[in-house]
Design brief:
The complex is a heterodimer. By secondary structure, chain A is an alpha/beta fold. Chain A is built from six helices and seven strands; from the N terminus they run αββαβαβββαβαα. Chain B has one domain: Cytochrome-c3 Hydrogenase, chain B, CATH 1.10.645.10. Chain B is mainly alpha-helical. The chains are: A alpha/beta, B mainly alpha. At the A-B interface, β3, β4 and α4 of A face α1, α5, α6, α8 and β4 of B.
């Protein structure tokens, strides 16, 4: 029987973890320890439902309801001077509890503060687009859609951005395989030449380091060169490689180290 | 189809004729020499004027975030080189800093100084490269040759330090691997002494050049609101009237001990961006002079450490590994299994030559990051073309792409 491998997270795993190892935590501080953040949070709490908030690495992290995101970002931008959305994306927690965690990294240039707005959505749910507040979310949301398959409501152009439109799957999901399967090996052959050419061309070789020493079509076989396409037996004589005849060639001088001049001033 | 005698019937695969109006769709790229990489622009044209622009990216996508999730932290370092490959040390640094914050180690002072030198040399290299290629796009071949000559000297210095010219991988998590070579400071000084004259030469060629001014002035105007809304950072933002430099506002390394100005302009056009880049080169030279003094001070004070001491996360110096059993065991575990940072999240932004380079890391206590998001400035500097290009003419596209200074290694990641 084969060993069971979980299908909901197929990413690389540590091959050994001490059974008594307890991972330490990055310390979290109360929001009250920073006056600027405390004031911002108080203002935010008056209008919106704040689930959790703390300071980590000098940045405030605020958990809100998924439905509030447009209002919260509008409030942050217009009232609290968080005028830039630096980054937004998702974290895949599907294996744990079938949710995605969405984060919005905000920057206030007048306060010199950064905070992160976060919320959870269930698998298959969409987020509200903030593209009309921050134009950069146009591309970020498309990237999130591309990488996780999370759609944004009211987005003007919800299409893949980095991958081709006909791509299957969402690469940053933990369920996304790290190696191509049987289908992937034939994908380009089918696409470019058609299925009927499979016998002629063969599957795509995905091992980038593979060298076939009996292949005289694609590999040079350094030191044992033969004409292209020759059948190779493995008993070829080595080709003695001389870059220049002893007698010398017209205009070309043989390199002798003693006669050469070494320039040691790097500025020349 | 019948041939009309006095008219050619060309076959344009890029142009669709089945429209009521005269709108024409032009595919610009992805193999256009002035697209600075694999940028494809779908331009809707009315005559020569652009009415709609649709940038299409992803031709260089290598899935770096995915790669990061399946690599130990140190393993990912050389991959960051391939983001902004014009200034690769700045990517190395952004990643190293984010992990250092996560594991909470303090980098020794000499390593900090060396890192700052590398960062600023990279900034100069990047800006010189920007100037060269943009000027070449506009048609100023001479500037290209001059700027590449200077960049060559810098690449030689870097090559002397780490052996690579483009993909340096010269920074490690916790410090730097090597001290600078003996000739480093003298070479750098020689270069810096010449630099003001070099910059003046470029400016003499460009500042009053009629063609340059026509292509640059009042072309591609980005308002402050637009720059903020599109997430513009770095010179793109500073040329649009926001004096925001992360080195100044949220200082990392030893930037708070250094005197430098943050040049900015409120014009927002191509020419403003050009001026910001030129002034930044001068400021960078100023910073480099100060780092040379700082380095000599560390020599005087005998601060020779180059890597932080944190045996849980960072391998001991080579001499210890070769002589002490416990250091060797630690090193073995750190190389084969990788460091395991604490559970938590970090977002660290640094000022790369292109803008705010951010690394968001979510660690779940394992040797692989659970989620790593790369915030590359060029991504949004490409996106802004959607709103920036309409209203401009085809030749302006080239100069606008030039001054946005986008690098596709980091747009597509």
């Amino acid at each position: 029987m084969r060993a069971y491998t979980p299908k909901d997270d197929v990413q690389a795993k540590a091959y050994y973890t001490d059974r008594y190892y307890v991972a330490p935590q990055v310390p979290k501080q109360e929001v009250e320890t920073d006056e600027v953040f405390a004031a911002d949070l108080a203002a935010l709490k008056e209008k919106f439902d704040v689930k959790e908030s703390f300071i980590q690495m000098k940045q405030m992290i605020v958990y809100i309801n998924a439905s509030d995101i447009y209002g919260v970002l509008e409030f942050l931008r217009d009232e609290l001077t968080y005028t830039q959305l630096s980054e937004m994306s998702a974290i895949d927690w599907l294996a744990k509890d079938n949710t995605f965690e969405i984060f919005y990294q905000m920057l206030s240039m007048t306060k010199r503060k950064r905070l992160r707005i976060k919320f959870f959505i269930n698998n298959g749910d969409a987020v509200d687009s903030v593209e009309s507040l921050f134009r950069c979310a146009d591309w970020s949301e498309r990237e999130m859609f591309d990488m996780f398959g999370i759609e944004a409501n009211n987005h003007p152009f919800m299409k893949r951005i980095l991958l081709p439109y006909d791509w299957q799957g969402n690469p940053l999901l933990k369920t996304y395989p790290l190696e191509g399967d049987e289908f992937a090996a034939w994908y380009e052959v089918d696409k470019i030449y058609g299925k009927e050419a499979r016998d002629v061309i063969g599957p795509e070789i995905r091992d980038t380091a593979r060298v076939d020493r009996y292949d005289s079509e694609r590999f040079a076989r350094l030191g044992f060169e033969v004409p292209k396409g020759t059948e190779i037996t493995g008993n070829e004589e080595p080709n003695k490689q001389d870059y220049q005849e002893e007698g010398g060639v017209f205009l070309v001088k043989k390199f002798t180290k003693d006669a050469s001049k070494i320039i040691d001033d790097p500025q020349r | 189809m019948a041939q009309v005698k006095n008219r050619l019937t060309p076959f344009f695969e890029n142009i669709s004729f089945d429209r009521e109006d005269n709108e024409l769709i032009l595919n610009f790229g992805p193999q256009h020499p002035s697209a600075h990489g694999q940028l494809r622009l779908m331009l809707h044209l009315q005559q020569e004027q652009i009415v709609k622009a649709h940038p299409d990216v992803g031709y260089l996508h290598r899935g770096m975030e995915k790669m990061a999730e399946n690599m130990i932290y140190n393993e990912f370092m050389p991959t960051t080189d391939r983001m902004d490959y014009i200034a690769s040390s700045s990517n190395n640094y952004g990643f190293a800093l984010a992990v250092e914050k996560l594991i909470d180690v303090e980098v020794p002072r000499r390593a900090k100084v060396i890192r700052m030198m590398l960062l600023e040399i990279n900034r100069l290299m990047s800006h010189l490269f920007w100037l060269a290629t943009t000027a070449l796009d506009i048609g100023a071949m001479t500037v290209f040759l001059y700027a590449f000559r200077e960049r060559e000297y810098l690449m030689d210095i870097i090559e002397g330090y780490c052996g690579a010219r483009l993909t340096h991988a010269a920074i490690r998590i916790g410090g730097v691997p090597l001290d600078i070579q003996d000739t480093f400071l003298s070479q750098l000084k020689t270069f810096l002494d010449k630099l003001p004259q070099n910059i003046k030469d470029y400016e003499d060629l460009l500042d009053t050049n009629r063609i340059w001014l026509m292509r640059m002035e009042d072309v591609g105007v980005i308002s402050t609101e637009m720059a903020l809304s599109w997430g513009c950072t770095g010179p793109m933002l500073r040329a649009s009237g926001v004096q925001w430099d992360i080195r100044k506002e949220e200082p990392y390394e030893l930037y708070d001990e250094i005197e430098f100005n943050v040049p900015y302009s409120d014009k927002g056009d191509n020419f403003a961006r050009y001026r910001v880049y030129m002034e930044e080169m001068r400021e960078t030279a100023k910073i480099l002079y100060q780092t040379i003094d700082m380095y000599q001070e560390t020599v005087k004070n005998g601060q020779t450490d180059l890597m932080a001491h944190a045996p849980k996360y960072i391998s001991a110096p080579k001499i210890d590994i070769m002589t002490q059993n416990y250091s060797l065991m630690q090193h073995f575990v750190l190389v084969t299994q990788g460091m395991r940072p604490p559970v938590g999240e970090v977002y660290i932004a640094t000022e790369s030559p292109k803008g705010e380079l951010g690394f968001f890391i979510n660690s779940q206590g394992g040797p692989y990051p659970y989620r790593l998001k790369l915030r590359a400035p060029s991504f949004w500097h490409t996106g802004i073309l959607t709103d920036l290009l309409p209203g401009h003419y085809i030749p302006d596209v080239v100069s606008i792409i030039g001054t946005t200074n986008i690098v596709f290694g980091e747009v597509d990641r």
